[in-house]
Specification:
By secondary structure, the chain is of the alpha/beta class. It is about 45% helix and about 20% strand. It contains 16 helices and 17 strands. It has helices at about 5-15, 25-35, 55-65, 95-115, 120-135, 170-175, 180-185, 200-215, 260-275, 275-280, 285-295, 320-335, 355-360, 385-395, 405-415, 430-439; strands spanning about 45-50, 70-75, 85-90, 90-95, 140-145, 160-165, 195, 220, 225-235, 235-245, 250-255, 305-310, 310-315, 340-345, 370, 400, 420-425. The strands form three sheets. It has an eight-stranded mixed beta sheet with strand order 4-3-2-5-1-6-7-8, with helices on both faces. A six-stranded mixed beta sheet has the order 12-13-17-14-15-16, sandwiched between helices. A three-stranded antiparallel beta sheet has the order 9-10-11. Helix 7 (about 180-185) runs parallel beside helix 8 and helix 13 crosses helix 14 (about 385-395). The radius of gyration is 22 Å and the shape is globular.
């Protein structure tokens, strides 16, 4: 194999199409894992799927398990700035040399056994499992890439299945209705292991329950039934309490203004009650302290995070995520209601997304300006398309400016720093490009 450097490996992986209907069956992935010595064996697997919130839930669960002393791997999708973000052990990204090493290991197996080339996500998943084995992790939290039923992460059994909010996204691949999408997400349930879900939709709930019954999965907990109480939002974050079937969790705090993270916290707490049942029964107060500490320490970039004063980044890229972001921005505006601030939305998106409906949800917020900008990448909507949709949805209410690329938008932002809050949304690729430029 001629590839030697980290940059060459990353370029090779990025050359593989990210989205394709042509996926290999699980047999191909399992053949790779077998040839690599079954790196997945002996590891406790928690599998997370959903339209929105699955990255945050994966992060929270990995953080919680790490606090119990377990060496914990986490597999994320997508990354914001560097590919290394996708594969982490105890919240530390895989190093450049290790990334090259596991890539070479998988490629050598492909060449020796004449296996078919894995797709982009399949390759990263197999690489992650090799790394987790080498790092001798006790458990791993896997975030699905696309859907769930046919996702590479579903090729190995899990000891707990978690499904987060279900909404319309990637409709070309997953379906045009909530029940269709829910069926794809619930497809991660391939055995009788426990299930926790918080879909936010009665239609999705029915599909998930049907899958649970057919697979004989037990116990099954609908985290959407957890009661959220005493929610208070302040500049320092969100304080709240949660009541589940087992316990009341008071004095909880999240260092974020993204209100949707409270629902994700409820999902994680219900999952923790199953995962850490022994600790919960032996030391209830210690268990609750662990939950509090995990939530206090939780950080997740690109989810309404302030990267410099007045500049907030959020990866809301579909209508349901935009609805939840709008709720949070309205709360942020209330906190600044006594100040003479302007409010600016920066929006860019992938051309295959439901941009019009996403913008309509974001338009429920009062904005003074709308800036439109394509991100760097073949999937991005062009400047002209963004401008057309911006005028169509919000043209009569805000001042609209369109930029040809992110760099010119950032230059303008520097010139106009001051009494304006800027919220960036529409695509994690846009968020990642801006975050990388700022870093």
């Amino acid at each position: 194999m001629e590839i030697q450097s980290y940059r060459e490996v990353v370029d090779r992986i990025l050359s593989i199409p990210k989205f394709t209907k042509e996926k290999h069956g699980f047999e191909v992935i399992r053949s790779y894992l077998e040839a690599l010595g079954h790196p997945e064996r002996g590891i406790q697997v928690i599998h997370v799927a959903g339209t929105n919130g699955k990255g945050s839930v994966t992060r929270m669960l990995a953080g919680l398990l790490g606090k119990t002393g377990k060496r914990t791997g986490a597999f994320y999708s997508p990354h914001l700035v560097r590919m290394n973000e996708r594969i982490q052990v105890n919240a530390r990204e895989i190093g450049d040399e290790a990334l090259v090493s596991v890539f070479r290991a998988v490629e050598e197996v492909r060449e020796e056994r004449h296996f078919p080339q894995l797709t982009f996500f399949e390759l990263l998943f197999v690489m992650a499992m090799v790394h987790f084995h080498e790092e001798q992790v006790d458990c791993v939290v896997l975030e699905t890439g696309l859907g769930g039923r046919l996702d590479a992460t579903t090729s190995i059994p899990a000891e707990l299945y978690v499904i987060t909010q279900v909404g319309l996204d990637h409709e070309e691949y997953l379906g045009h209705t909530i029940p269709e999408v829910a069926g794809e997400k619930a497809g991660i349930i391939t055995g009788s292991s426990p299930v926790v879900w918080n879909s936010g939709s009665e239609e999705a709930d029915r599909v998930i329950r049907d899958r649970i019954e057919r697979m004989g999965a037990s116990p099954a907990v609908n985290a959407g039934n957890a009661r959220i109480r005493d929610l208070r939002i302040s500049p320092s974050g969100i304080d709240f309490s949660i009541k589940t079937d087992y316990y009341s969790y008071d004095l909880l705090h999240l260092d974020t203004l993204a209100v949707y993270q409270v629902d994700n916290a409820a999902t994680v707490i219900c999952a923790a009650e199953l995962l850490l049942q022994e600790l919960r029964e032996k030391d209830p107060q210690g268990f609750i302290r662990l939950i509090r500490e995990m939530l206090q320490d939780f950080r997740w970039e690109g989810r309404l995070t302030e990267v410099r004063p007045g500049l907030w980044l959020d990866g809301a890229h579909n209508p349901s995520a935009a609805t939840r972001l709008a709720e949070s921005v309205k709360e942020l505006q209330k906190l600044h209601s006594g100040e003479r601030l302007g409010w600016r939305l920066v929006y860019g998106a992938s051309a295959d997304k439901n941009m019009e409906e996403t913008l309509r949800q974001l338009a429920t917020v009062h904005w003074d300006e709308l800036w439109l900008v394509p991100y760097t990448g073949a999937r991005s909507a062009a400047k002209e398309e963004l401008e057309f949709l911006g005028e169509k949805v919000m043209g009569e209410t805000v001042k609209i400016t369109a930029f040809p690329e992110v760099s010119s938008m950032l230059n303008r932002l520097k010139e106009e720093e001051g009494h304006t809050c800027t919220i960036v949304a529409g695509s994690l690729y846009l968020v990642g490009e801006i975050r990388g430029s700022i870093k």
